[in-house]
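[Discussion] Sanity-checking designs against the backbone

I'm trying to build intuition for which residues belong where. Below is a structure token string of 279 positions. I'd appreciate it if someone posts a full sequence so I can compare it with mine line by line.
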């Protein structure tokens, strides 16, 4: 009986969502004058009236990042783990945790570091996943205009995704690099960790350093390219077709399917990088 009610509710929700989407598309087609302005650009605010890397911030990145983290914390507080699962949410999370724990056991040889690596990997997966999923849902986005003002787009673009900001991805990738070397120095000893840069021969020191620097670069750029490029492609096609038919598929493909894969890849690489550094 309960399953039948859930199926009916799901069907009604899908019908309501599609109806609302069509209505918004009609409104956008005949009411709003959509222009492809600010595509690929970011709303940047200067802190001290100066320009430069340390004096500028992206407000949307900060707002959405904190919103996602707070949302995940609130959602996690509502999940109660019991000996006998009473809700499907507990079952889903148990399957997710078991899956990642199996990966961590295979990737991290030292049992002492498996729990922290597991926490890091799952945390990255959940944050990146939610960020990417926002790119598959119509919402509010802000983009700069040529006259110096900003344009607030409502339901003519997807929600702003923090993972489309290279600074966010680079910060997480660099943190993975730092954590991997801290764990490596702690497990091997500082001297053995330092000596590893000169192995197998001292002349390979420059290549070893380049290899370590390349890890966070590839780790962050891979995620940034997929999310940012997919978002721009969806926006252009949506503008050409006035947000009907194909944009729905593209939003779902790049936001949900590709977003899920990229979240898994990012967290998997984080686990692999840290696991390969410890003994």
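Best answer:
Here's mine. Compare freely.
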């Amino acid at each position: 009986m309960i399953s039948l009610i859930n199926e009916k509710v799901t069907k009604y929700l899908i019908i309501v969502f599609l109806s609302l989407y069509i209505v918004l598309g009609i409104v956008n087609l005949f009411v709003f004058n959509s222009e492809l302005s600010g595509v690929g650009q970011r709303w940047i605010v200067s802190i001290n009236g100066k320009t430069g890397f340390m004096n500028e911030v992206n407000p949307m990145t900060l707002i959405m990042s904190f919103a996602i983290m707070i949302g995940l914390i609130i959602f996690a507080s509502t999940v109660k783990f019991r000996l006998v699962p009473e809700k499907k949410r507990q079952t889903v999370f148990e399957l997710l945790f078991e899956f990642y724990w199996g990966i961590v056991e295979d990737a991290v040889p030292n049992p002492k570091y498996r729990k922290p690596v597991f926490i890091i990997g799952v945390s990255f997966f959940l944050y990146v996943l939610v960020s990417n999923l926002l790119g598959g849902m119509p919402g509010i986005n802000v983009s700069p205009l040529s006259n110096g003002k900003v344009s607030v787009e409502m339901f003519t673009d997807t929600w702003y995704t923090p993972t489309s900001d290279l600074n966010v991805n680079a910060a997480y990738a660099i943190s993975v690099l730092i954590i991997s070397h801290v764990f490596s120095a702690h497990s091997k000893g500082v001297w053995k960790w330092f000596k590893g840069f000169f192995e197998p021969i001292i002349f390979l020191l420059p290549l070893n350093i380049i290899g370590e620097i390349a890890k966070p670069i590839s780790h962050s750029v891979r995620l940034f390219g997929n999310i940012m490029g997919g978002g721009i492609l969806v926006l252009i096609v949506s503008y050409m077709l006035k947000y009907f038919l194909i944009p729905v598929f593209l939003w779902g493909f790049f936001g949900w399917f590709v977003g899920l894969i990229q979240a898994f890849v990012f967290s998997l690489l984080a686990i692999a990088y840290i696991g390969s550094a410890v003994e």
